[in-house]
Amino acid sequence: MSSRVRALSFDAGGTLIAPWPSVGQVYADAAAANGFPGLPAPIIEEGFRRAWRSRAGFDYSLNAWRELVLETFSGLCARDVVHGFFPDLYRQFARPEHWRVLPGASSLLSELRSRGFLLAVTSNWDERLRPLLGALGLADRFAVITISMEAGWQKPDRRIFLKTCSDLGVLPDETLHVGDSPGEDVEGAKAAGLKSALFDPSLGGSLASCVEAALG
């Protein structure tokens, strides 16, 4: 018999929050602020996505981000120029004005807490996530925030999910994990014994409807 869900774990990027107005635009603005105006945000965005897809096992370290940014700007800016403005760009994504809480996420978290669920974040991210969630008004909704750079494991490694459950004081099969990656979130959570739900905003459904369907 399936255990009753007592806790919910959420992915962060693409599930609760998203870059604003876009990764490409923030990158273009950083380049412009450092003497290289006019770089097209859509081309930068395409370069970022291509570079991101090519990196299996991205470790979220400062050096990993630097190499990703260098590849993103390949053919658009000289490497020494990108090296020069990388620190500023890295700081930009720690700022709440470059992120938005996805529609319905904040109200859903409040409602789930009012129903007695324990809430957590389980995210592949770095040291910027915790203060960012605080600045966006979300951190206090969560009993636990598990970040890959701190935990030492990345999704889909089952150990990062088990850490979240252990820190919450619940069993894996009492926990529902919700995220936008079939591999990292859904399969990773299942491998750890959690229930899981895929949130795909491109299909037009809300995060609330995704969660309620999974809770049954």
The CATH architecture term of the largest domain is: 3-Layer(aba) Sandwich
- Please tell me what the overall shape is: elongated
Strand order of the largest sheet: 5-4-1-6-7
- The structural domain count equals 2
General description of the model:
The protein is an alpha/beta fold and 216 residues long. The protein folds into 2 domains: 7-16 and 102-215, HAD superfamily/HAD-like (Rossmann fold), CATH 3.40.50; 20-97, Haloacid dehalogenase-like hydrolase (DNA polymerase, domain 1, Orthogonal Bundle). Helices cover 46% and strands 13% of the residues. It has 10 helices and 7 strands. The strands form 2 sheets. It has a 5-stranded parallel β-sheet with strand order 5-4-1-6-7, with helices on both faces. A two-stranded antiparallel ribbon has the order 2-3. α6 links the parallel β4 (118-123) and β5. α1 packs across α2, α2 (41-53) packs across α3 (62-72) and α3 crosses α4 (79-92). It is elongated, with a radius of gyration of 18 Å. The model has no long low-confidence stretch (mean pLDDT 96).
